[in-house]
Design goal:
It contains 1 helix and 8 strands; from the N terminus they run αββββββββ. By secondary structure, it is mainly beta. A hairpin with an 8-residue loop joins strand 4 and strand 5. The chain has one domain: Porin, CATH 2.40.160. This is Outer membrane protein beta-barrel domain-containing protein.
Length: 195
């Protein structure tokens, strides 16, 4: 009887202890960061994980990946470089085209219309590129607007939309490409040395 009471007491104690240790967690969906990630001296690393677009001239569909890195030269202003890696397919009987390029960029985070968990920004870039369709070098221009939503103190999800233009004789159909594009991506904001 003594053993039975001791066993029941230990079981009741274990059950009480285990129910007290129950932890309910909710995934973090935003962080109150203010201006801290976009201060002078900080770094940003990330890029667009997918970019979809439609070209008006050649009726083609494209997808791109744009890794980028930048440095904040002042509060809310970053300069850096991005790689442009893409694939394009056309409705015509043309071959599929692989594209590549590099472009320096300037990004400005607008102080107005922002919240503690997100910022609107504008980005302009100008660079060079090429493709598997030819040996010529293209001039690439881009002008995009977007919104960065901070899910943690250092990571933001982004959505951008804008206009992109490329001019070179890299295929037989046209010597220029232009069109609208939408991208979804992420950035990691790293504090500088002076922090």
């Amino acid at each position: 009887m003594k053993n039975l009471l001791l066993t029941l007491a230990l079981t009741a104690g274990c059950l009480t202890y285990s129910s007290a240790q129950q932890i309910n967690t909710v995934p973090q969906s935003s962080a109150d960061v203010g201006m801290e990630p976009i201060k002078q001296g900080n770094w940003m690393v990330g890029g667009s994980i997918g970019s979809l677009g439609y070209s008006f001239e050649s009726e083609s569909f494209n997808i791109q990946v744009n890794p980028r890195a930048g440095y904040f030269i002042s509060d809310g202003v970053a300069i850096g470089a991005q790689a442009n890696l893409g694939f394009r397919t056309s409705d015509a009987d043309a071959d599929n085209v692989w594209g590549y390029g590099i472009a320096p960029f300037v990004r400005y985070y607008f102080p107005g219309g922002a919240s503690a968990t997100g910022r609107f920004f504008g980005q302009g870039d100008i660079g060079i590129g090429g493709s598997s369709a030819g040996d010529d070098v293209a001039l690439n221009l881009g002008l995009n607007a977007g919104y960065a939503h901070f899910i943690t103190q250092t990571v933001a999800l982004e959505v951008t939309a804008g206009y992109n233009y490329s001019k070179a004789n890299i295929n037989a159909q046209s010597d220029k490409q232009s069109g609208l594009g939408v991208a979804v991506g992420f950035q990691i904001y790293l504090p500088g040395r002076n922090r």
